[in-house]
C-alpha cells in the first residue's frame, strides 16, 4: 500500500521544540487521515535542527465509498417536501427512492453514495491546513510576504516542502499543494556545511539513506546514541568516565545534524571550584559534558563537546576554540566563588530588606524573620534543635545574594551549604541551607535530617499561608508560585518522616507572624499627602477600625483575638462618634491596615489550606494506589489536620474493607443510610437524638442498641490511642447485630413512635461509625 | 577573504581591516554603508536606521558600525573583555532576504572564519528590548562554542508589527576580532595591522578612555543633572512629537527623527543613572516603561512620515 513522505525544511528549529513538533506532526496528520477514512498501518516522525519529517505507510490509495441513507417525507407528502428531498439526495425522481414502513407510516428513503476520493487528493487538502495551523510554542513571520496579512507563521523561515505519495514499487507522485508561495516537490538539502547541495528524494527509504550520505542523521534517537556512545568511548579510552546528563544529551542532539564528539581540557587550577559550579558553567554556557576520574569519582579537567561537522583539520581548531571560551567562563566562576567566600552569609542579610519577595507579602528580610520563628516552632515537633533550626532558617536564603547563585540559579541552596560549611556552621545547619528547598517534585529526595525538615516545612508553609492569605491560589493550570508542589512537599515531608503535626496550629502561627509584621510596617502613605475625604469614612467603616485609641499597644496585646475572632472590629466601632484626636489615630490605623486589608481571615485561609492539603494528599495517595473515596471518607469527619493520622486511618480503613466483616458492615451502613435518607426526605426532618430504650420491642433492636454503645466507646478509645486497627476491629463487632436487625426488624413500623425510634437507632449506627470514617462517602 | 589585500589590512591582522572587510562585504550585498549615529546609545539597534527604518513597508538595506555605550559594563580597563564602550557592527535588511543565513555565513568567511574548520551553529535566542517595545526570533550564532553574533527576525518594533519583517545581524566586533587575531585580552588587539613601532593596539586607543569613563560612570556622573536631563529629554520628545503633526488630521508627521533623538538621549541618561546606582529596583521598571512610551510614540510618528511609508 502507498506511503507518504513529508519533510518541512527550515532554518534552525530550537532544540527544545523539536521532539514535540515531530510528535505533533505525526499526530495531526494521522488523526486527519483516520478522520477522512484513511486508516494507515504505521507512522513515524523525526526532527533535526533544520527539518521535520514524517513517514506514514500503509495508506489506502483511495477513500472507501461512503453510502448513507437519508430519510425523506412521508409517501403522499406535499410536492414542496418531495422536491426538497430530491434536491438534497440528488435523486432524479421518487422512483429511485426506497419506501420504508415504520409505525408512523411509509417514508421515502434516499440512498446517497459518495464515492471515495484518491488519498493523494485528500492529502493535498489536509497537509497545507496542518502546516498553517501547526502549534509551535512561538512562531514568526519573515521575508517579503510578511508585509501582507495572512502570511505563514513558522518557527523559523520555512524553505522547502517535500511531499510524495505512492506505493513502494512505483515512482511516487508529489502531493501537490502550496503554502505561502512554497510549492511542494521532491527536493531537500543535506548538511549545511558538508553537503549543502539539493537532493532528489522519492520515498522514506531513499530519503533517510540519501540524507545520511549527505551527512544528516535524521533520527534524533540515533544522534543521541552516537553522541552517548562516542562520548563514553572517548572518555573511557583515557581512563575517565562521562558524567551522564540526559537533559543535556537531548538538547545537544537537537543542535547537530551530524554529531562529532571531541574532548577538550581546561587548567587544573579550576578544579578548586565546587564540582557543581564547574558543571553548571560548562553545561549551561557551552552545552558540553563534564568528565570524572573513574578511580576517584572526582571531576577532571576535561570536557566533551559535540560539534556539527567533521572538520578539515580533524577538529583541532574547534577544540581549541571551545577551550578558549570555557577558560574565561571558569575563570569568572572561580572569581565569583572566591569573592563569595569573603563575605559571611549573615552579613549579606541586610540587603534582603531592599528585596521584595512579593508586593503584598513584604520583603525577603521579613520572610526570613517569619521562617526563623516558624522553624523554631516546628523544630520540637520534628526532633530538631531549636537553636540550630533558627540559625538554619536565618542563613538558608543568604546564598541567593552570592555571585555564583546570581550566575547559576540552579545551584541555589547547594552553594549555601558550601558557604555555611566554609564559615564553620554546624553540619546540620549547612545541610538545611541546601535541603530546605526539597523535595522539589514527586521524584526528588525528601530530607530526613531534623533541622532540614524543620526549615523545609517552615519554608513551604510560610509560602502557602502567605499566598492563600492574599488570595493568590493556584487555579486550573496556573500555579505561578508552584504552590501545588509546595503542598506536596509538605505532605511528603510529613509522611516519609512519620511526623505528627497539627496543621491548624502551625498555619495559625504562620499567619500570626505575617499579620503582626504587616501591622508593624511603616505607613505607606505619608501623612502630609493624606487627605481625608468623605468617601474615606465609608471605606474606614469597611476596614474594621479598632475602638481603642491605644492602637499600637492594643494591637500587640490582642493580636490573637484579632486574628481569631475579629473581637476588636465590632460594628459599634463604626457607629461611634469620632473626635478629632480619634480621627488622627484612625488615619494612622488605616495606613497600617492598608496591608492588613489585603489579608483574608485566618479561618478562611486555614480551612481552605487544609482542604488543599486534602486534595493534594488524595492525588498523592491515588498515585500510590490508594482509593481516593477512603480519603474523602476520612476527611469528611472534619477537623482533620494531622496528615499522618489521616493516612493511617485511610490505611486501616482500606484493610478493614478488604475483610468480609468490613464489606458486610459497609453494606449494612449503606442500607441504614439509604433508608434514613428516604425517610428523612419523606418526613422532611432528621432523626437525630438518642433512641428511647423503652420503645425497643424486639431482641434484635436491643442487641443492636447495646452493640452500638459498646462499639462507640471502644472505637473512640482506640482512636484516641491512634490505634486505628483496633478501632476497625471494634467496628467489626457491629456487623452481626446490624445484619440481624435488617433481617428481622421492619423499620417502617405502623406505630409512628416505633418507626421514629427505629430510624433514630439507624442514625446511631451512622454516628457510631463516624468515630473512624464517614462510611457514606465510600464507594462500593 | 580577499587574498589581494596587503597584510596590514587583512581582517585577521588588523581591527580596522576587520571592520573594512565587513563593510565591503555588506556593501556588495547592496546595503548602504552608514557611519555611526552621532549620539550615545546602548546598542546598534537604537540607531534610527534600525529602530525606525524597520517600521513601515519600504525596503531598506543598511550596515554600519555603532559604538555602544553600556555604562554599567565598565571595569576600569581591568577586565579582559568587558567594557563600557565597544563596537557593534549592525546589518539590517528589510524585507529579510530568503538567503540571509547564507549571506551571514559568507560574511564570516570574508573575515577569515572558514566553515570547513570552524563549528558554526545557530542556537535559539529570542530577542526582546523592553525599552524599545521590540521583539523578534532568531539565534545567537556560535563559532566553536563562542557567541559571535545575534541574528534576529524583527517581529515588532516600538509596539508596531513589522510588515514586512526585517532581518537584523549584530556582530560583537571586538570579540570576533579577538577570536580571529587569537588574543585573549581586548586591549591586545592589533588595531592598525602594523608591527613594531608602527603598531597601534586597541589598548592604545581605548584603555585610557575605559578607565576615565568607568570612573565617571560609577563615581562622578552628576546624578542631579542626569535626573534633570532625563526629564528634559522626555519633555522635549513629547513636545517635538506634538509639534510634528502636519495638521489636525494627524495623518502626516514631520519631526519623528528629532523626537526620536530625545528618546535615545533619555535611554542613555537612564543607563548612566542606573550605573550610578541611584535607581531602585522598582523605579527601574518605571524608567524603562517611560522610555518605551517615548519609543512607541516615535514609532507612531515615524509611520506617518514619508520614509515610514505614509502615503
TrEMBL record, chain A:
Name of the protein: Glycine--tRNA ligase beta subunit
Keyword ATP-binding listed: yes
Family stated for the protein in its record: Belongs to the class-II aminoacyl-tRNA synthetase family.
Classification via InterPro entries: DALR_anticod-bd, Gly-tRNA-synth_bsu, Gly-tRNA-synth_heterodimer
Catalysed conversion reaction: tRNA(Gly) + glycine + ATP = glycyl-tRNA(Gly) + AMP + diphosphate
Main localisation: cytoplasm
Entry-linked Pfam families: DALR_1, tRNA_synt_2f
One cellular component (GO) term of this entry: cytosol
Source species taxonomy: Bacteria, Pseudomonadati, Pseudomonadota, Alphaproteobacteria, Hyphomicrobiales
A GO term, aspect molecular function: arginine-tRNA ligase activity
Domain DALR anticodon binding stretches: 669-767
Automatic annotation (TrEMBL), chain B:
InterPro entries: aa-tRNA-synth_II/BPL/LPL (IPR045864), Gly-tRNA-synth_heterodimer (IPR006194), Gly-tRNA_ligase_asu (IPR002310)
Annotated compartments: Cytoplasm
Predominant place of localization: cytoplasm
CDD domains registered for this protein in UniProt: GlyRS_alpha_core (cd00733)
Superkingdom of the source species: Bacteria
Gene Ontology biological process terms, A to Z: glycyl-tRNA aminoacylation
GO annotation, cellular component aspect: cytosol
Catalytic activity: tRNA(Gly) + glycine + ATP = glycyl-tRNA(Gly) + AMP + diphosphate
Record keywords, A-Z: Aminoacyl-tRNA synthetase, ATP-binding, Cytoplasm, Ligase, Nucleotide-binding, Protein biosynthesis
GO molecular function: ATP binding; glycine-tRNA ligase activity
EC number: 6.1.1.14
Family statement drawn from the similarity comment of this UniProt entry: Belongs to the class-II aminoacyl-tRNA synthetase family.
Assembly information from the UniProt record: Tetramer of two alpha and two beta subunits.
HAMAP family: Gly_tRNA_synth_alpha
NCBIfam families the record matches: glyQ, PRK09348.1
Protein name: Glycine--tRNA ligase alpha subunit
Encoding gene, per UniProt annotation: glyQ
Amino acid at each position: 500500500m502507498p506511503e507518504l513522505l513529508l519533510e518541512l525544511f527550515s532554518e534552525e528549529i530550537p532544540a527544545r521544540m523539536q521532539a514535540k513538533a515531530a510528535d505533533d506532526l505525526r499526530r495531526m496528520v494521522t488523526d486527519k487521515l483516520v478522520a477522512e477514512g484513511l486508516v494507515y498501518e504505521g507512522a513515524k516522525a523525526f526532527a533535526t535542527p533544520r527539518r521535520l519529517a514524517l513517514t506514514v505507510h500503509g495508506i489506502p490509495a483511495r477513500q472507501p465509498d461512503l453510502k448513507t441513507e437519508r430519510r425523506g417525507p412521508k409517501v403522499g407528502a406535499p410536492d414542496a417536501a418531495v422536491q426538497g428531498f430530491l434536491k438534497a439526495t440528488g435523486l432524479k425522481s421518487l422512483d429511485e427512492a426506497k419506501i420504508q414502513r415504520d409505525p408512523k407510516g411509509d417514508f421515502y428513503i434516499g440512498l446517497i453514495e459518495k464515492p471515495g476520493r484518491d488519498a493523494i487528493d485528500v492529502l493535498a487538502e489536509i497537509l497545507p491546513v496542518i502546516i498553517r495551523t501547526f502549534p509551535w510554542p512561538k512562531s514568526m513571520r519573515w521575508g517579503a510576504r510578511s508585509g501582507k496579512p495572512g502570511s505563514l507563521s513558522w518557527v523559523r523561515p520555512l524553505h522547502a516542502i517535500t511531499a510524495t505519495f505512492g506505493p513502494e514499487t512505483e515512482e511516487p507522485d508529489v502531493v501537490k499543494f502550496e503554502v505561502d508561495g512554497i510549492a511542494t516537490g521532491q527536493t531537500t538539502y543535506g548538511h549545511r556545511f558538508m553537503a549543502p547541495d539539493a537532493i532528489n528524494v522519492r520515498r522514506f527509504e531513499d530519503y533517510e539513506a540519501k540524507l545520511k550520505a549527505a551527512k544528516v542523521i535524521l533520527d534524533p534517537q540515533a544522534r543521541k546514541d552516537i553522541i552517548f556512545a562516542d562520548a563514553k568511548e572517548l572518555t573511557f579510552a583515557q581512563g575517565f568516565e562521562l558524567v551522564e546528563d540526559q537533559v543535556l544529551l537531548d538538547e545537544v542532539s537537537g543542535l547537530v545534524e551530524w554529531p562529532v564528539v571531541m574532548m577538550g581540557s581546561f587548567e587544573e587550577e579550576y578544579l578548586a571550584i565546587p564540582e557543581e559550579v564547574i558543571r553548571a558553567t560548562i553545561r549551561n554556557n557551552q552545552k558540553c559534558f563534564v568528565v570524572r576520574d573513574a578511580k576517584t569519582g572526582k571531576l577532571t579537567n576535561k570536557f566533551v563537546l559535540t560539534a556539527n561537522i567533521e572538520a578539515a583539520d580533524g577538529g583541532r581548531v574547534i577544540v581549541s576554540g571551545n577551550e578558549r571560551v570555557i577558560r574565561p567562563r571558569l575563570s569568572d566562576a572561580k572569581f565569583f566563588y572566591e569573592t563569595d567566600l569573603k563575605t559571611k552569609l549573615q552579613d549579606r542579610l541586610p540587603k534582603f530588606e531592599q528585596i521584595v519577595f512579593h508586593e503584598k507579602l513584604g520583603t525577603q528580610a521579613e520572610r526570613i524573620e517569619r521562617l526563623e520563628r516558624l522553624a523554631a516552632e516546628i523544630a520540637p515537633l520534628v526532633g530538631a534543635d531549636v537553636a540550630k533550626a533558627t540559625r538554619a532558617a536565618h542563613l538558608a536564603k543568604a546564598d541567593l545574594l552570592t555571585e555564583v547563585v546570581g550566575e547559576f540559579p540552579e545551584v541555589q541552596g547547594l552553594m549555601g551549604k558550601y558557604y555555611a560549611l566554609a564559615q564553620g556552621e554546624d553540619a546540620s545547619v549547612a545541610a538545611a541551607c541546601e535541603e530546605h528547598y526539597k523535595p522539589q517534585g514527586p521524584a526528588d529526595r525528601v530530607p530526613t535530617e531534623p533541622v532540614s525538615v524543620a526549615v523545609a516545612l517552615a519554608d513551604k508553609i510560610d509560602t502557602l499561608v502567605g499566598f492563600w492569605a492574599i488570595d493568590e491560589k493556584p487555579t486550573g493550570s496556573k500555579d505561578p508560585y508552584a504552590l501545588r508542589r509546595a503542598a506536596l512537599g509538605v505532605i511528603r515531608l510529613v509522611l516519609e518522616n512519620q511526623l505528627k503535626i497539627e496543621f491548624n496550629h502551625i498555619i495559625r502561627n504562620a499567619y500570626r507572624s505575617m499579620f503582626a509584621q504587616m501591622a508593624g510596617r511603616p505607613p505607606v502613605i505619608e501623612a502630609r499627602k493624606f487627605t481625608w475625604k468623605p468617601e474615606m469614612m465609608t471605606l474606614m467603616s469597611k476596614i474594621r477600625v479598632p475602638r481603642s485609641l491605644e492602637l499600637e499597644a492594643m494591637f500587640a496585646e490582642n493580636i490573637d483575638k484579632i486574628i481569631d475572632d475579629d473581637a476588636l472590629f465590632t460594628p459599634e466601632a463604626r457607629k461611634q462618634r469620632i473626635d478629632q484626636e480619634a480621627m488622627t489615630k484612625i488615619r494612622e490605623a488605616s495606613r497600617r491596615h492598608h496591608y492588613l486589608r489585603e489579608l483574608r481571615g485566618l479561618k478562611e485561609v486555614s480551612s481552605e489550606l487544609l482542604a488543599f492539603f486534602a486534595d493534594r494528599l488524595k492525588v498523592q495517595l491515588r498515585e500510590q494506589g490508594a482509593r481516593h473515596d477512603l480519603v474523602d471518607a476520612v476527611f469528611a469527619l472534619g477537623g482533620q489536620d494531622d496528615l499522618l493520622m489521616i493516612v493511617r486511618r485511610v490505611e486501616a480503613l482500606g484493610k478493614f474493607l478488604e475483610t468480609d466483616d468490613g464489606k458486610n458492615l459497609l453494606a449494612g451502613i449503606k442500607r441504614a443510610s439509604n433508608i434514613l435518607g428516604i425517610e428523612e426526605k419523606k418526613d422532611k426532618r432528621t432523626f437525630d437524638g438518642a433512641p428511647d430504650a423503652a420503645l425497643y420491642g424486639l431482641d434484635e433492636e436491643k442487641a443492636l442498641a447495646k452493640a452500638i454503645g459498646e462499639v462507640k466507646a471502644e472505637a473512640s478509645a482506640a482512636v484516641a490511642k491512634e490505634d486505628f486497627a483496633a478501632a476497625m476491629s471494634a467496628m467489626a463487632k457491629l456487623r452481626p447485630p446490624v445484619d440481624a436487625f435488617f433481617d428481622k426488624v421492619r423499620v417502617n413500623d405502623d406505630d409512628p413512635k416505633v418507626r421514629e425510634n427505629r430510624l433514630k437507632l439507624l442514625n446511631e449506627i451512622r454516628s457510631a461509625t463516624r468515630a473512624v470514617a464517614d462510611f457514606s462517602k465510600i464507594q462500593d | 577573504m580577499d587574498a589581494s589585500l596587503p597584510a596590514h589590512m587583512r581582517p585577521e591582522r588588523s581591527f580596522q581591516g576587520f571592520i573594512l572587510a565587513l563593510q565591503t562585504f555588506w556593501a556588495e550585498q547592496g546595503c548602504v554603508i552608514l557611519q555611526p549615529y552621532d549620539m550615545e546609545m546602548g546598542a546598534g539597534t537604537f540607531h534610527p536606521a534600525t529602530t525606525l527604518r524597520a517600521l513601515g513597508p519600504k525596503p531598506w538595506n543598511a550596515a554600519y558600525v555603532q559604538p555602544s555605550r553600556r555604562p554599567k559594563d565598565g571595569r576600569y580597563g581591568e577586565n579582559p573583555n568587558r567594557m563600557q564602550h565597544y563596537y557593534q557592527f549592525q546589518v539590517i535588511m528589510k524585507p529579510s532576504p530568503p538567503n540571509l543565513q547564507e549571506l551571514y555565513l559568507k560574511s564570516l568567511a570574508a573575515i577569515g572564519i572558514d566553515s570547513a574548520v570552524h563549528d558554526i551553529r545557530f542556537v535559539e535566542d529570542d530577542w526582546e528590548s523592553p525599552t524599545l517595545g521590540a521583539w523578534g526570533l532568531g539565534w545567537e550564532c556560535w563559532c566553536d562554542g563562542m557567541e559571535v553574533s545575534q541574528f534576529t527576525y524583527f517581529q515588532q518594533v516600538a509596539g508596531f508589527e513589522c510588515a514586512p519583517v526585517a532581518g537584523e545581524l549584530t556582530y560583537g566586533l571586538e570579540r570576533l576580532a579577538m577570536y580571529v587575531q587569537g588574543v585573549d585580552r581586548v586591549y591586545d588587539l592589533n588595531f592598525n595591522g602594523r608591527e613594531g613601532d608602527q603598531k597601534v593596539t586597541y589598548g592604545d586607543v581605548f584603555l585610557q578612555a575605559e578607565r576615565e569613563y568607568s570612573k565617571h560612570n560609577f563615581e562622578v556622573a552628576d546624578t542631579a543633572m542626569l535626573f534633570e536631563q532625563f526629564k528634559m529629554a522626555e519633555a522635549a520628545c513629547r513636545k517635538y512629537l506634538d509639534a510634528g503633526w502636519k495638521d489636525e488630521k494627524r495623518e502626516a508627521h514631520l519631526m519623528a527623527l528629532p523626537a526620536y533623538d530625545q528618546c535615545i538621549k533619555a535611554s542613555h541618561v537612564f543607563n548612566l543613572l542606573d550605573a550610578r546606582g541611584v535607581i531602585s529596583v522598582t523605579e527601574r521598571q518605571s524608567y524603562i516603561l517611560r522610555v518605551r512610551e517615548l519609543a512607541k510614540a516615535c514609532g507612531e510618528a515615524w509611520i506617518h512620515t514619508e520614509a515610514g511609508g505614509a502615503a
